[in-house]
């Protein structure tokens, strides 16, 4: 259980991970970070962990309308219904990556040897959008790729 989201995020950022749910955790942060500081978003990691099924995207993909409304009404949640619903959409898109990829982590790591190293965030974000992901801009996805270790931390 995450207690201090900022310390947790700072400790894991840049550490290579191939764990699918950990990668989805970074995706949740990326979605909610749009328009906010990383610290504001990371401070909500304990809330995200609680409301988003410990970042189990297969479980999140099956959330129904009452579950989404409960998340939207949570007092300590970032109040942005579009971003909350984007998490559901992204969980469903992540499930749909299979069987082409083993899981979400395998999808991101498949870009490690890409020739788009200078503009990899843009390339991956475009691919994600084609696959149905939402709130995945080039800068946030570029940061995510560094966070999960696909690209080196500078």
From TrEMBL:
Database matches in Pfam families? Adenine_glyco (PF03352)
Q: Name one GO biological process term.
A: base-excision repair
What is a GO molecular function of this protein?
DNA-3-methyladenine glycosylase activity
The name this protein goes by in its record: DNA-3-methyladenine glycosylase I
Species this protein is from: Lacticaseibacillus brantae DSM 23927
């Amino acid at each position: 259980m995450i207690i201090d989201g900022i310390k947790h995020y700072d400790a894991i950022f840049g550490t290579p991970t191939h764990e699918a749910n950990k990668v989805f955790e970074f995706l949740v942060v990326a979605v909610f970070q749009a328009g906010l500081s990383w610290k504001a978003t990371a401070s909500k990691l304990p809330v995200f962990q609680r409301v988003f099924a410990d970042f189990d995207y297969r479980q999140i993909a099956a959330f129904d309308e009452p579950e989404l409304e409960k998340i939207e009404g949570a007092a300590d949640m970032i109040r942005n219904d579009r971003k909350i619903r984007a998490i559901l959409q992204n969980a469903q898109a992540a499930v749909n990556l299979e069987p082409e990829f083993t899981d979400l982590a395998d999808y991101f790591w498949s870009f490690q040897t890409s020739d788009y190293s200078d503009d990899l965030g843009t390339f991956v974000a475009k691919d994600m959008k084609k696959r149905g992901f939402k709130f995945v801009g080039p800068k946030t996805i570029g940061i995510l790729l560094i966070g999960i270790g696909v690209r080196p931390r500078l």
